[in-house]
Amino acid sequence: MTTEMLLTFAEITAILVFAISGVIEAVRKKMDVVGIFAMAFITAFGGGTVRDLLLDRRPLFWVQNHEYVWLVLLLTLIAPPLSGVIRHRWVDWIIKITDAFGLGLFSISGALLAQAANMPLIVVLIIGVITGVFGGVMRDVICDEIPVVFRNHQPYALCSFFGCLVYWFLHTAGVVSWVGLVAGAGITSGSCLLALIWDWRVPEWPGKSNG
Amino acid sequence: MTTEMLLTFAEITAILVFAISGVIEAVRKKMDVVGIFAMAFITAFGGGTVRDLLLDRRPLFWVQNHEYVWLVLLLTLIAPPLSGVIRHRWVDWIIKITDAFGLGLFSISGALLAQAANMPLIVVLIIGVITGVFGGVMRDVICDEIPVVFRNHQPYALCSFFGCLVYWFLHTAGVVSWVGLVAGAGITSGSCLLALIWDWRVPEWPGKSNG
Amino acid sequence: MTTEMLLTFAEITAILVFAISGVIEAVRKKMDVVGIFAMAFITAFGGGTVRDLLLDRRPLFWVQNHEYVWLVLLLTLIAPPLSGVIRHRWVDWIIKITDAFGLGLFSISGALLAQAANMPLIVVLIIGVITGVFGGVMRDVICDEIPVVFRNHQPYALCSFFGCLVYWFLHTAGVVSWVGLVAGAGITSGSCLLALIWDWRVPEWPGKSNG
After folding, report:
1. Domain spans of chain A?
2. Res C118 pLDDT > 50
3. Is A34 in Cβ contact with B205 (below 8 Å)?
4. CA gap C128, B85 in Å, rounded
5. Contact B190, B184 (CB under 8 A)
6. What is the average per-residue pLDDT within C95-107?
7. What pLDDT shows up at residue A205?
8. Nearest partner of C54 among A50, B60, A57, A203, judged by Cα
9. C210 contacts in chain B (CB < 8 Å)
10. Does C67 touch chain B (CB under 8 A)?
C-alpha cells in the first residue's frame, strides 16, 4: 500500500514536471493552445505509454488513472498566467530539481513493472530508462529538434540507468521492496542533481571533431 | 449494419483524403515513389493504427480491411498524372472539404471504439482526436516539420474534440447509436468547415511574443 | 532448426550492421555516448519492434534474445577506437554489402512472421518492408532528417518488397520453407547490391520540378 501510494505520488510529480517542460518547449516553438496541450500530454505520458506498449500492459497507465489527463489539461489552461514567472532563475532551478526527482521516480516505476513482468536485467534497465526519458525524446522529435538527452553531454539517462541497476541488485538480493525502490529512485535523482551542480559531463566521442 | 456501412464509407473517404495530403507533402519534400507511397500510407493509416495500438485491438483496421492498402497503393500509382491538376484553387477547396468530412468520420470512429472498450470520458475524447489527427502529425514529423495541427492556430483538433464530446453525451443519454454518430461527425466536420470559411482562430498564447 | 539458426544469424548480422549505421549517424550529429547507444539501439531494433507491436508478438524479439542488446551495448563501447577506420572507402563498401545482406534477412524474417500470423498478401509485404527499413526511418527522424530511404531515389525498399513477394509466392506454391526464405532474402539482398553497383534509380515524380 505504501509502495503503491509512493508510486502514485511519483507518477503525479513526474507527470506535472514533464508536462511543464512540454509546455515550455511548445511555447518556444510558437505553437497554439492545441499544440501546447498536445506537447504537455505527450511529454508527460509518452515514456509511460511506450513502456506499457512494450510490456503489453493494458489499460495504459493514463487510462487507468484518467484523472492524470484532466490534471494535465488543467495545467495547460492555468499555465498562461504563470508563464510570466517562469523565466526567473529560481523557477528554473525548481523545475530542474523536480525534473530530477521525476526522472528517478518514473525510471524506477518502469524498472519495477519490467521486473514484475519477469524481464531479464538489460531489458529492466532499458525499460526503466525509456520510461524516464522517452517523453522528452518524443517532445523534442515533434518539436523538430535532435533529442536534448542524446546530445547535451549531461549524464541524465545514465543516472536513470544506474538507479535502475541499483534497484535491480537490491531486489535480486532479496532486500525489502520499498528499500530498493527508494534507493534506486534516490540514486537516480541524487546523481542527476549532483551532475547539474558539479557540471558532470559524459565522455566526448573521440572522433567527434571529424564528424 | 447501417452503422457498419457508414463507418466503412467514413474510413475509405478519410483514408483517401489523408493519403492525398501525404502525397502532396511528400512531393513538396521531393521524395521518390517509395517515400510518396510511405507518406500516403502513414498519413492515411497512422491515426487509426495508433488508436488500435492504444486500445490493443487486433487485427489492425488496415489488416482487417487490407483492400484499403491496395487502394492507397493504387492512388499512389495514379496520382502523378493527376498532380498537374492539384494546384487549381477549386481542387484545394475540394480537398479541404473532404478533409473536414474525413476528420469528422475518423474522429467519431475512434470515439466509438474507445467507448465500446469502456474507456472513461477523457480517454474517449483523446482517442477520438488522436484517430482524427495523428496521421497528419506523423506525416509532418517524418517530413521534418513541426506538426501543422499544433501550430496553425486553426481549431482543427478542437472541432474533433467537441464532436467526440457531443457523441459521448448523446450516447450516455441513451440516444440511438446512429444519431450520436451522425451528430458527432456532423459537428466536427461542420465546425471545421465554418472555421475555414470564417477564419476562426484559436487563442494566442499570452507570452507568445517573449517565446 | 536450420531455419531457426538461419534466422538467428540473419538477425545478428542485420542488428550489428544497422547498429553501426545508427552509430555513424549519431556521431555525424555530434551526439554524446548516450545518444550514440540510443541511436544504435533504435536503428537495430526499431524495425523488428514495430513489426512485433503490429503483429502483437510478445516477448519482443530483443526481449527474447536479450543478448542482442548486450551485443549492441558492447558495439557502442568498442566503436570509438574503430571510428578512425570507418572513413576508408572499402569499409564503406563492406558496410553497404552487409547492409544489403541485413535488409534481405530482416525483411524476410518480417514476412515469415506476418505469414505465420495468417496475414493477407499486402500486409505480409508491408510488414516485411517495415521490418527491413523502419529502424533506419526512426534513426533519420530522431536525427532530424527526412528518412533517406524515402528520398534517395535508390530502390532499397522496393528490393525488400520484391524479395518478400517472391517469398510469398514460393510459400503459397507449397515450396519447402527454407527455399522460399533463401530465395526471398537472396533476391532482396542481390537486387539491392546490383542497384548500388549499376546505380539503378527509382522513377522521378513527374511534377517534381514544380515541387
Report:
1. 2-204
2. yes
3. no
4. 34
5. no
6. 87
7. 63
8. B60
9. 87
10. no
% of residues, chain C, pLDDT over 90 = 57
Q: What percent of chain B has pLDDT over 90?
A: 57
State whether C27 and A207 contact (CB < 8 Å): yes
| Residues B150, A142: C-beta atoms closer than 8 Å | yes
Per residue in A116-169, pLDDT (tens digit) is 999 999 999 999 999 999 999 999 999 999 999 999 888 999 999 999 999 999
pTM listed for this prediction: 0.91
When CB atoms are compared, the residue of A141, A155, A205 closest to C80 is A205
**Cell triple for B95:** 480537398
**Which chain A residue shows the shortest CA-CA distance from B140?**
A142
Of C53, C122, C202, the CB nearest to B53: C53
Summarize pLDDT for C48-67 with one digit per residue, the tens.
999 999 999 999 999 999 99
pLDDT at B209: 43
Query: Taking Cα atoms as reference points, which of C139, B22, C144, B150 lies closest to residue A144?
Result: C144
Candidates A5, A181, A17; CA nearest to A110 is: A181
Look at C32 and A151 and tell me if their CB atoms are within 8 Å: yes
pLDDT at B111 over 80: yes
Cell numbers given for C188: 532482396
Neighbours of C91 (CB within 10 A): 13
DSSP string, A54-91: HHT-SS-HHHHTTHHHHHHHHHHHHHHHHTTGGGSHHH
Dist CA A46 CA A31 (whole Å): 19
Q: Can you tell me the distance from the alpha carbon of B145 to that of A142, in angstroms, rounded to the nearest whole number?
A: 8
Show Cβ contacts of residue B206 under 8 Å, excluding neighbours closer than 6 positions: A80, A81, A83
Nearest Cα neighbor of B135 from B39, B11, B34 is B39
Q: Do A41 and B206 touch (CB under 8 A)?
A: no
Stretch B128-151: mean pLDDT: 94
pLDDT at A63: 94
Helices then strands, counting H and E runs in chain C, come out as 8, 0
What is the 8-class DSSP label of residue C84?
T
Mean pLDDT of A72-100: 77
User: How many B×C Cβ pairs under 8 Å?
Assistant: 84
